[in-house]
Amino acid sequence: MSDLSSLRPVAVWRHFFNLCRIPRASGQEAAVRDALSKWACDRGLSVKVDSRGNLILGKPATPGRENHPGMVLQGHLDMVCQKSSGSPHDFGHDPIRPVLRDGWVTASDTTLGADNGIGVALALAVLEADDLEHPALEVLLTVDEEAGMHGATGLERDAVRGRLLINLDTEEWGEIYIGCAGSADVVADVSLPLVAAPADMRAIGLRLSGLTGGHSGIDIHRRRGNAIKLLAQFLHELAKKGFGFRLVSMMGGTAHNAIAREAEAVLLVEGTPALLEEAGGFIAGLRSQLDDEESGVRIDFELVSTQDTGDALSGETTRQVLALLSDLPCGVRHMSGQMPNVVETSNNIGELRLEAGRLHVNMMVRSLDEHGIHTLSDEIVARFAASGFDGLHVTGAGPVWHPDSGSKLLALARGVYRQTFDHEATVQVIHAGLECGVFNWLWPDMDMISFGPTIRGAHAPNECVETASVERAWQLLAGILAAVPERESGN
Questions:
Q1: pLDDT tens, 249-280?
Q2: In a shared domain, residues 207 and 299
Q3: I need a labelling partner for 450 at 20 to 30 A (CA). Which of 254, 264, 309, 381 fits?
């Protein structure tokens, strides 16, 4: 805690540090849930765990606020677990080690878990505080958000009583969000024919690395490379130029909602010198196209023993697979016509595994419009079918949260923001999935907004959170809770 002990608000950073000590990958939140349940019980707070594993903590209104509408503060317990290549960190056992650097808190070689640990810490600090005015509070902490919002989708309609909700899971301070993208997972699982490896071909391993990665929603518009897509494009260019090779395996990415930072392949090739020259030219071209932060992108080669490779795809199947992968939509498809500088529809190729004749691709389509989700998902399925590959399925991961510009909670929050910081907050929608989309379906009468401190690099090992914006988010949250007006007659 020594690095964070000087930061304010003290309680928020203490709670965040304690969260960092407990591994909490998606689907493995039991330990952190148990720790928070005990903490809440020790303080006389109400504690409920539902059948899906979501945790709901409650605190009565402060005296004189009993007739004010109840407020739900919401975040998720799990985090995306990404680490730098070569890091020995074990997300199942090792704590995250936060470090303070120039006004930002980050972690070395791993994701920090500020998404959504800071939001959870803000809510816990509210429950702990005895000097805040507030209505009746419920803190809803869901599980398995990053893997598909499975905790939120399992909530019962009577899980919470409040009908005002603040989601603390957005990552750009100064913006109040009133809408989010919905999404669908498009998953391919295709069986491919293998042939025996020719004795006169050499086995080469190649690895594309050095990319920044990031969140497949909020970072998708940045000029960052997707390692899976780029490696497929490089190999496809080689095939079009007549290089003779066959794919043995290809792998990249670790999560559907993270931009792939690394990808690798094993090839059977007829020669290597020209291959190295082609890689140099391809990388030089990439560095002129991508953002400056991607200047470290590289392709490395190594000889592989043919005894370790096994069979390979035929030359024709290799060309078919690479043509498909290099042509798949990846990145921004459309920008929003209603919200300036906001992505409307995108796709991320998050995971690829080609080994032993089995091709598995996990993609995440996002859109602010349900039609956009269906259209792009159908296009991807059609592209696989046109290449002669079946075995695709599309599943919904999160519904769209449609903006309500007439929200009374939004008006209240904007007023508090203006009074506290002497300027206007920006009202925005986000091209990422928030659980508010699920809540909007589950509780149509819920009045919701979302805000949070500034987080950079979510879903990547360079994730960091700005300390000054955490303090401002706390000021805004406390101010809103104190300003909730008395319940209107009849409501």
A1: 999 999 999 999 999 999 999 766 688 889 99
A2: yes
A3: 254
